[in-house]
User: Fold these one by one.
Assistant:
Number 1:
Amino acid sequence: MKRRDFLTKTSLASSLMLVPNFMKAFEGLDPAMLGYKKLVLIQLSGGNDGLNTIVPYRNDLYYKYRPGISISKYKVLDLNGELGMNENLAPLKSLFDKGYLSIINNVGYPNPNRSHFRSTDIWHTASSSSEYLDSGWMGRYIDQYGKKPHSGIEVDDSLSLIMKGQTMNGIATKDAKKMFNNAKTPFFNKVLENQTAAHLSEHNLGYLYKTMVSAQSSAKYIYETSKTSKSTKSYPKNPFAKQLKTTAEFINSGLETKVYYVSMGGFDTHASQSNRQSRLLKTYAEAIDVFVNDLEASNSFKDTLIVTFSEFGRRVQQNAAAGTDHGAASNLFIIGKQLKKPGFYNASPDLSNLDSNGDLKYSIDFRSVYATLLEHWLDANHSNILGQSFKTLNFI
Amino acid sequence: MKQRHLIHLHWRSGFGIKPSSLQSAKALNKKKNVNSIFESSKKIEPILIDLSEFDDFLKTPYQKYKKIHGADAATKLRQKSQKKVRELNFVWLKKISSSQCVLREKMTLFWANVFVCRDNHIFHMVQFNNCLRTHALGNFGNFVKAIARTPSMLKYLNNNRNIKSKPNENFARELLELFTLGLGNYSEQDVKEAARAFTGWSFKANGDFIIRTNKHDENLKTFLGVSGNLDGDDVIDILLKQRECAEFICKKIYTYFVNPVIDPSHLKELTALFYKDYNIEKLMRHVFSSDWFYDEKNIGVKIKSPVELMVGINKTVPSVFKKQSQVTYLQKMMGQILLYPVNVSGWKGDRYWIDSNSLMFRLKLPSVLLNNAKISLKPKGEFEDDFGNFYNQKNQNFTVSDKARAYFETHYSKTPFKRLKAILVLPKLDEDTKEMLKIYQNQNAFQYCIQLMSIPEYQLC
């Protein structure tokens, strides 16, 4: 048989009709059993400068440390008489005013690492700065609670550590149709159609077959569930907004996915920071704005929590290139309708008490934030997932 | 020697075997085949790469260079060096795929994931990589001492900043935890004492190792129960005296070369042998000569690393290493970029290579490389990228060349399908997959080969 013949012969043969029994186990679970709550985690990748995002505009030290790149008190959007928002975050200001935004200051961890790779690793795995874990915290949540690849979706083409569990991984896709097509190349399909459960108990080979079956099953589920859900909101034309649009379509279609991870790049502002960061924050805020409206219009905003973090903040003192170098603790945004403490969750950063590198010290461990999300939003036991027990906070 | 055992031997000591070499090798016994593998790797052929444009790097330390030529020039030089390291990645992969010293290259790859290191200084990185290659089959003790002296490692784990007045424990800790003993075999105090022994270790602009005696701590230290004015080499010698050190390395060797599931009696056997003199070549000869190495339970059970997968396909049909950007793309999509390990503990390997996305990609790889199938997936952007570049990563088009087809025709067209299957696929075929493969019996050998490479069994070696 020629390849082309084979293509035409198999592309119509629906795998639906030939689903082996062991594959059906992956489908048809009652979503109510898992709860409706969704968590969307957004990473501002590269290290966002928290101090020029939420500006301590009454603090002389801030202006002293940043003679060239500070933001004038006349330009900030005042939040509490002490801290103000970067004007490019205007859409976020209205969320703040509505009580849909909580800002947690000084989030970090002991002995902060200033490498993008390592610090991202730490945030993804929820490890301390001296341990190396092979699995991500969302991955471990999927291990224990979701049990299917599509329980966690990374809106990208390849999977990050955060979504890799110990026995189960999430799945990455920014285009459900594309993934579905990739997963059903004629040969791939054929292997699955012919496959019975005979192999599944075997060691590594069984693991490969199982992963292949669950990948295809999830690809099909995501595509078929979400294909009719097309967003009617008009998102800005940029790739980050596109990622959020896809996320909204997934959520609004009723996918039983619990956790989403989106990474937005470009925040490594070592030089000429002001213009670059302004554009980035604007892009971020405008996309978030439409995203929230989109969820709101489908009545799913109340069940969705959007958390934005960065692998580190930046040095308080600006550098010689009108930029900032890698820092440590920074602020974190929680957006949602069911916030217990909208506005500022805790005290402003203390610019008079920096660490030996001249970076902000942390006062809230990021794992306490995770613990809270797990316990109070996802109804999960946090110490099982984080490996130890952390103090939970009361922002939700 | 049995064909199946021969293929197994070549997959574990290298990246598979060509049918043409198989015929002659079958006539020889196990001992002769093992000998010939070691014979081919006797030579040490370092990576050679033209670095004349980086001469300044050797003469002047970076900070001094910055003072003389200004920050912009220094940044440019640094970026040029970063780019060259990406080229080194390509050069290294091509070497892995084409070198006659197959075992030495496989061992180099193995050690690069034990002595994990990352550096954007091209001179130092080439030096580091060649250090792995030089000692790959040598004496483990000398190996550790040589690695500890490389500028890349001195920088990566901050040992060059480890001075008497302010000891830095980073290198000492990883030396104990990841390079020699493993967690649980030493105390926090041992880490502190070891760090003091390494104080003052550094390097000159040309890459030569020096001990800055005025920064070295000459006082009494007690490390793992041994007291004295210990220096770094003393610490390494004490480490080698611990049986746990031999066992720790043998565990890594066993899971990488034999089976991800360790058989305690075989591990004990290897540890006893290695502990005697830490001779890596002897250890590897023992592994490949043991009867148990050829037990069915050890054949076709290891999940290929992305590099093993690519190099293996390339061995059968040369198609992979045409363009640097393509090879970078493949490594990114499958999660193993040489010279860019995830963190100091390295890649976990085996099942950790596999998730839904990487597996779909790996299963599609043969049709992408050999059958002009399109793949539209993009790799992730870098942390340092600006917004535009972060999202503007390119997917790659691959087209199979006539040369690759011709190569296949010359080497395989007369190979019966049954043999082709035996050569390419080591695990026992799944019954259903076997049935399904029958559909392709009437195709040409090239198509059949692509189909074989697309089944999950091909992911194993």
Note: Residues 306-459 of chain B form one domain.
Number 2:
Amino acid sequence: MSVGTRNKTSFDWVLILIYLALVFIGWLSIYATSQNPEVTEFFNLDNLYFKQLIWISFGFVLIVFILSLEVKFLERFSSLFYLICLVLLIGLFLFGKNINGATSWYAIGSLTLQPSEFAKAATALALAKFLSDLQTDIKTLEGQLKAFAVVALPALIILPQPDPGSAIVYAAFFFPLYREGLAGVYLIIGFSSIILFVSTLLLGTPLICSIILLTGILLFYLNRKKRPSKRIYFGTILLACLFSLSVNYIFNNIFEQRHRDRFNIALGKEIDTQSIGYNTQQSEIAIGNGGWTGQGFLQGTQTTGDFVPEQETDYIFSAVGEEWGFLGSLVVVFLFVALILRIIILSERQKNEFSRIYGYGVAGILFIHFSVNIGMVTGLLPTVGIPLPFFSYGGSGLWAFTILLFIFIKLDSNRVNEW
Amino acid sequence: MRKILLFALVLTTGLIFAGRLFYLQIYDTSATTLSKNNAIKAVYDYPQRGHIYDRNGELLVSNQPSYDLMAIPREIKAFDTLALTKLIGVTPEKLRKEIRRAWNYSPRQAQVIIPTLSKEEYAFLGEQLRKFEGFYIQKRSLRDYQIDFGANFLGYIQEVNPSTVSKDPYYNSGDLIGRQGVEEQYEHTLRGIKGVKRFQKDNFNREIGPYKNGTLDTLPVQGKDITLTIDAKLQEYAESLLTNKRGGIVAIEPSTGEILALATGPSYDPADLVGRKRSKNYTKMSYDSITKPLTDRALQGQYAPGSPFKALTGLIALQENVIGLNDNVYCTGSYNYGGRKPLGCHAHKRSVNLVSGIAHSCNSYFATTYRRTIDKYETPQKGMNAWKRHLESFGLGNYLGYDLPIGKKGLIPGADFYDRYYEFYWGSTTNISNSIGQGEVLMTPIQMANFTAAIANRGYYYKPHIIKSIKGEKTIPSIFTKKNVTTINKKHFEPVIQGLNDVYNFGTAKSLKVPGIEICGKTGTAENYDKIDGKRVQLTDHSTFVAFAPKDDPKIAIAVFIENGYWGSRYGGRIASLLIDKYLNEEVARKDLENWVLNHSLEEEYAKPLLGKPFPINDGSKISAKFLAQENLEQ
């Protein structure tokens, strides 16, 4: 302890500066999207940007609080946070408030809180705690099942709220698991399932099955001198074909029509500019209208004309695209990439397993949010309602991401004190 | 691998997004247009279209207000349908249909329900408009014609078509644009520039304020008035003389190239293409494939010029130095060049030289000079091209370059034309008909008027043009003030002009003299053919005439072309004589001649091929002689 005391406050200022930059640009964008000609004074709670400013201020209080906590406290009570979050999530089924068709909020007066946002941070802590335990071995099936359970439990509770967007985020925990030694076969299975799913939708089952069969047999034939196991080869081929066959069933029978539409639009199989494709089209128009340097702050016609629905929340990036153009958008993309890469690099430097796993969890969560959100806003991915961290309007989200990030900054500041 | 997977994924995603953003924001520019349609509403302020005056300052075309009944479909409240339909003079079915159409297009957007109400309808409706909620009146400007002639060179205005809108960003759907005539040619001058105020809209199409604080808004620029070279009185007279005839008349002032009259028959009242009846009238005329009232025969009619061409044949022969002024040709009534049948001529004294050859329109004389011209060169190709070069210097065989949007090239065949046509040898006798303005030579009436003006000027011409001045501009385009010199030496014109003068003195038009004015002119009787039921049939000859006057100080050069007008002096000569009289003397004293032209109709003649009747005019000299006796006129 005596060695590290003088370094006790060495917070990573790069992360803090990127955080401040993102929150600031995010607030400017909310300011641009929520111009209301009827409310002219700044300090008015009818203004979303003023409310967001209050959330940001609260966020700073949270930061001070987190940074003043003892690291040991965070590590020791992580299971407790996790349990509290689970209870809050379950409690939604009884006391939750329904907003936009999803029962994901607690309402306390006019203030609403979304526990699923905080559950991500709690799950990251709990997973870090579980994996860093000396008794846990991720290479055993038991260890894997337990780890999956930690991750899947909150996701399964969130899914039927219904909030599939927030549930998808839990896929982020694959990254810390894989980093800590989860077998590579999961990665292969995961990736090939996604590729099979999309290619089957695009090209149809018969073509995909024939391609699988032909390449499988060809590979087997080419490797025949190595005496490959017939069982593995043909088992894989069979499974792949079965999966491809079931894609149509899943797509047509388990997915709802709106999900099907979203997929078809993202895959370019359907063109729709009115009902379900309206958001994406308007968002693409707004971004495209930006050109090189953008229309200028408060000058975006799509943004000030409220053409993009949900622009202050999930579609906030389209405001950046229109008002700050290609260069401004690149800056934001660069900030996110830098933030996540910085977290990964710092995580790798952690000597404490708990901090490293938690860091990977944070990087994974931010990555999924960043890629799915901007992918959706730019029309590359189907519409999935998840917010852009630090940008999208909303107190719960902002606070949850602030807590998520600053716990890591706290853990990281402590790394010299370990040992 | 385990350490770099996420790292690599994040980097890749960043690059993919950068690429996607580049595509959306830089590469694919369609979004900007879509956004403009989405979010910016432009309100236009249309300036008054410029007025059109004739050369004497008489107002020809001005503007009149017109009133459109507009409505925002959503805001229409239940109203007394019958009362409204009575006020605006439409049936209730029509009104309901229009409202339904507007509603289907957009319930929120203001649209025209009934266009162009008359002043009277507007006056009564305006008083009671408050009873019909959701409706309002929009004022527009339409053309107001002070004259009922000149439709062919005035042109008209109409709503722009979608292809113009997509090509020219100035125009928006529903804007008016000039079509045909000076309305099209001087569109940019006449229309001015509309002013624009831009408002930003929100997603409910509501205005939320000026776009970019109005910094891009502009004020309208007034349209400019233009003065035409047309003499309205002469034009009106020319058109009246074309009553019941098909053909074209062009009159040019030789010293300037200004077009004094440009008439085509049949024509129409320009007011027919204004307002609510416009569409109906236009359709009717454009479907009329027999009389073709929308075709300007003065500019677009390509005809064999006939005998007036002999003046050019003579000029070329003089310039090529292949004839002398006193070289006589002995005409036996036909010219035998060794073809299947001799080139026929008509009755006149046997021995002719250049001057009397023109006066008597002797075919044999000009066949001879033509052969000498072509055969002067070692090959017919060279001869033909030399001949063509001379003619081209008179503005023939190509677009003249006048300031009206339509026209035809005509045809002056050169060596390559016949090389393509004939597989083996060809020579001056092959196309001997060219010498007398038949054969392959084709001209439009305005080209004929122009070469007449060039002869009147003794060797040069100015490009014919219809613009005299533009208000606020000192000059007209310089191409119209540049002298175009022909390849014929000035001294060669005098004998030809003497011949043209003798046409009136003792030649083919001696009965058409205007007292006190020395006129030079030339009759033309052009054979023409058509296909009827797949058979090539010779129709009644066209009547052509070119003239200029006075002989020594030409003020007017005229070409008249009357389709199937029997022979040159019968219609063409009479009309030219009357027009010269009108222009130089203001008043026509020869009322009997005037009445003859006004009352004679060729409609029966035009009906003949359609009814399958024969054409006795071509049956030989006997019937011609009968006509001669009847009219007491010499061909």
Note: Chain B has two domains: 44-228, 232-278+297-631.
Number 3:
Amino acid sequence: MIYLRETVAGLISPWVVLSPTRFARQLQQFAATELYTHYDIAEVAERQPSPLREEMHRHANDELRHHGIFLDWARKVAPYVTAGAADDPSGSRSRLEREEVRALVAQPAAPHRRLPTLFEYMTYIFLSESRAVLQFKLYQWINRYDRRCREWIPRLLADETRHVGYSARVAREEFRRAPWTCTKGFFRVLGYILRQDLLDLLRLVQILGSGLVTGLLYYGVVTPYGLVKRAFGGVRRGRLRRAAPTGPVALDDAFWSRS
Amino acid sequence: MNVCGVSAQYHDAATALVVDGQLVSAAQEERFSRRKGDPSIPVRAVRRLLDDAGLAPGDLDAVVFYEKPFQKFFRIVASSVANAPFGLTAFRAALHAWFESRLWIRTDLARALEVPRERIAFSDHHLSHAAAVFLTHDVGSAATLVVDGVGEWATTTLGRMRRDDDGLRYEVLETVDFPHSLGLLYSAITAYLGFEVNEGEYKVMGLAAHGEPRFAEEIGALVEAAADDAPRGTGGFRLDLRAFAHDRSVQKGWSRRLETILGPPNPPHRPFAADGSEDARRYADVAASLQRVLEERLLRLARRARELTGESTLCYGGGVALNAVANGVLARSGVFERLLVHPASGDAGGAVGAALAWAATHGEPRAAPLGAPLLGTTPDVRDDAPPDADDLAWERADDQDALCERVAELLADDRVLGWVHGRAEWGPRALGARSILARPDGPDQQARLNRMVKEREDFRPFAPVVLAHRADELFEGFGPGRALERRMLSVVTVRPAWRERLAAATHVDGSARVQVLHEEDAPLLHRLLLAFERRTSLPALLNTSFNHAGEPIVDSVTDAVASARRCRLDALAIPPYVGLRSRADAVPRAGDTTPTDATRC
């Protein structure tokens, strides 16, 4: 269930990869996620004891490197899509955006919100990274005709696999210390991820649903009405109304109140 | 009587405050929200202008929206019906936008601005544009010509406006209805050239000078002159709609037919490379042809306005009136003895027109002459402490003479400087209140500023500001009374003898969008120009808007400090202070080594 979204995304990936514009946009999204994760992990790492802190910082640095890889890749796929490049030749706006992401991560949690425990955080990383591994493996296999996918994805997969390994290890160690608390924590993380997936699904349903309703309205009501109206010469594309009103405009109260 | 005009929901939301028939302030929302072209209800701008005037929302007699949203909605419905079954995307986008917010504007305005619903009034889009010009000039009657993308139904309106004891009189003589639109033609080709609509039109105008109008005939054929017996509503011209799709699609305003005629388009957001390649030349030629066709059509419309009204003054408004090159052609054509243009003739200016027109029809028909259009906020500079920016070394000048001498010395030393003084400008042009100033000479100055400071395309020109008493010596081709040039609304020709000394402010075709500076318009800037002239014998400076790529013009001191940092300006003058950046961090000059990214971070 939890891997469903990534499986679907992996399976439909040729639809994305075959369009340079779509592919570049998706790579930019990947880059943005990696950047956010970089700052988030670095922030949490600061609160951990050594040697976990170093391990997490290494993970954070990997994410920053991946951010660069995805951006670079996006630039190569469709230079005109990336970063509004025409207006940002020096990359100063990108730097500014990076600062904004950092500021977002650094925001203190709301007072009533509890921070996740180390077990929960590591479980979250484990699940997210293993989902990413699945998605990238599917990407690599399905799009093996694409040279860039063959060359670039293995570079990312090696890191992601390492992230899965260390997060699983730390989560296991934490679980051994307090199994009952961690079990509750595991379901909390699972619930959080499923809730996020559900929200994404609802957004998709909303878009498709509203598209369906407006489509029905347009083809079921507007089009027949338009065809009849045009047949009787009431309206046509180049002339939407019979005559525009000319002459003095009465600037009275009725004029000002009419919207 | 206190009236607040509002334009919002499309682009460039703005507000204007009229007190007892006089325009006291006006500002765009983007200056406060820091979001370029911000279309949202201008809550921040309204609050700021009311605070500055010492008024509360309850003191407003009316809040006047610049157009009639329901009429616009009916036009969109009619367009969907006329285009069925080919306009689904436009229909879907319109339905979302209108049902989410635009149809509830009365309620939204009342809630956001905290005024009773019954005090919300609605003007007419083209009336607002025409009134913004007419009522800010001291004329008794005039012909009006409004040309833009689209208002409620009309895209072009010829009319007459006059003022009498009973108030304002407005007569519509001829209109051209949507989808036939010169503004949308310009927007469609702006997008075809890869620029952003409502943002890239200036770039197309700048690019036009690099090309030859070899497609003028083809583009001209797409804008047919309507037959004399054509019904009203297509009176002046009509577009060959087979080449356009702006009434069917929100993503693409042209059809394959246009591509057959002009060749493949430049993909959106692809950096425009003025590299002399065949494609680059073709795009420049398309821009030049479009500009030529636009000028011809505008001249025809002006002649028609003269014929219909017999007036000697033309009040010209709408987004197309932001095209300074075409304005210059119209002004010099002699069709009208006086050509008047509002400094914010796009939709932002609609806020001014709506408020003034309401006041004029409610007992305040006096003109509200607009001298220098400095209607924005005043920077919050403390006299006892410099602005808070530790990356600049601040100096305090004892008096205005000392300040001007110091700034002139920096400029003469080829420093690029931010200048923030007095109330902010109204409209898209920087007129010396929120400007970046630099020497106008030097062959590499334009590229240096485009690349290092503004971070924008190399082909885009800069404008000069010149002392009024020496303007004729440097430039030729002024319009009657040099009224447009005073507000940077027209383009003139740099005299050949001065082109080298004004190299950075002279466009590739020898033109310049000059600001002719009179002492009463901006006394301190005038004094600075005199000081600069004494040091260099140059009576002009390069003057460009104080903003970085993608951001609105700065408003407050805080914005100025942040933007100066992004632009890496050498200095920032916020009288009485001048802040200097160390040479290592400043804008490199010709011959300096280009900094690497590592040194710039």
Note: Chain B touches chain A through 72 residues (CB under 8 Å).
Number 4:
Amino acid sequence: MAQSKQALRSRIRSVNSTRKITKAMEMIANAKLFKQRNRMEANRLYAQRLQDTVDEIVARNPNAESVFITQRDNPHRMTIIFCSDLGLCGSYNQNVLKFARKQLNKTDPTIVIGTSLYRTFKEEGFNLIQEGPYSSDAMNEFILEDFVELGVQKYLNDEIGNVQLLYTKFVNTMTFEPAIETILPAPVEENPSDKETFHVETLFEPDADTILNQLIPQMAANVAYADWMESTTSEQGSRRMAMKTATDNADELSANLLLEFNKARQASITQEITEIVGGSSAV
Amino acid sequence: MMIHCRVVTPTGIYKEFDTPILNLDTEDGERGILPNHMPIVTMLKIGMLDSIENDVRTYYAVAGGLFYFRDNQAEIITPAIEQREEIDAARAERAKMRAEKRLSSDNPNIDQKRAEVALKRALNRLHVSEYK
């Protein structure tokens, strides 16, 4: 049974206005994605150079014994989780949540950045060591540095043997995967590629361990910053895709409803003509 | 002879320049690097950096970081750097007052260490901007 013209007309109107909203959100997410991605790319060289230097110092000083590069037996791990503040970004947050359930131990200290999953994590019994939710949009490298600093302190007190980040990897504009990155003890590449330059003697002032002890917390903070940016980039990418799908669906729905509406209109005209013709022949 | 110096920050490459000398504030004192210095890796303090670019003495305020030198290629990997002319003295002054206020308050929620670092950075910027 065809719906009434009136009902169809109001549904078309409603679908179109929703479509306008999702379209706008798609465009906003696209702009933000672009901006965030540029920031992410800009940071890459800095992060790479820090990591290279740490690798080199360790490779050249095999007897360096900085606490930040030695593996510990302590099985406790502290995790900083990145999720979004707002919803409507597809399965972005759900993927983070699923991954956290699978990979993390609920009793280990955890910090959640992003307000959307704070309550869920709390209800599921994760050991959150923060007082309230932290907004992901209000994050910056200095606040992140404080969280990393907290991890460094716990690490030095031997409360934990590992500091890690749970973030969403930006594989490409269509694919995002949750991943874990360890920041302490610092991951060190055992066999750096440019071996030939290693014959040159290098001065480490004051000495390798002192440099590593200062450099690694700095590097860890930067990795946290980089991963946060990568997560927000993924978030915007995810939102863009979700909104694009929504807009496409709205287009399809609106086209179908319009067809339905025209059929109903045509049917009512045909009926009226039949009635007039029938009426006049009766007279 | 020149040193080719590259400054890398979290927001990308800040600058590349050639200089016959680099004066640094390192953790164990001031240090001048001349061409053909042996390879060196050292940590920078929050302090001043100066160079001679195109025969002009140029001063920078550096917020700590790492200095890396090899084959006359120098690299300064730092979270923040400004040339003397770029420093916003009024802003640094405000940052200094804010940090001082924080340090003098006895609110336990305030991170003393962070306030101290902020104060050091602000003082350094002011020092460099007034340096003659």
Note: The first strand of chain A starts at residue 77 and ends at 82.
